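Practice record 12: protein with 4'-phosphopantetheine.
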Amino acid sequence: MKIAVCPGSFDPVTFGHLDIITRACDLFDRVYVAVLNNPAKKALFTPDERVEMLAHATEHLDNVICEKFEGLVVEYARHRGAIAMVRGLRAVTDFEFELKMASMNHHLDKDIETVFMMTSNEYSFLSSSAVKEVASLGGDVSAWVPGPVAEALVRKYSMAGQRG
Ligand code: PNS
């Protein structure tokens, strides 16, 4: 069985992420979508909320498992029996960061390959940060994230607004 990991922050999941996850599911027998649980990094959604949104958005895919992980991604991938980590590449600005990460991960475990997929054109400038910025200012993000995620963003920012 060929197993891959799609690691990320997914804060929150976008249609760009789902494009990559769906295509990874066509190439691998099982795909673990792994949400980094990093208490040092400030996120809008908790790791459990992010996993729940991902699980809901991928429920039509029968070879996906969504969960959180801590620590090194190569160790997590090894524990899951993965042969590859799949990452999406958008504009050239992603390249340097991804090259650095892939090189480090290769150094840490040469048996786990990083596989890059070019993000589909319509999502090449989409990012979770841009979605959060638009949502925080009251803009409509329904073209970029699944409905329940758009609703969760509205709830988060209206709660933040009430807290003042
Ligand atoms: O969605 P992101 O924020 O671009 O994902 C980055 C992520 C979670 C894949 C990366 O930060 C990661 O793998 N972190 C775990 C720690 C690790 O293994 N670091 C070594 C590679 S630089």
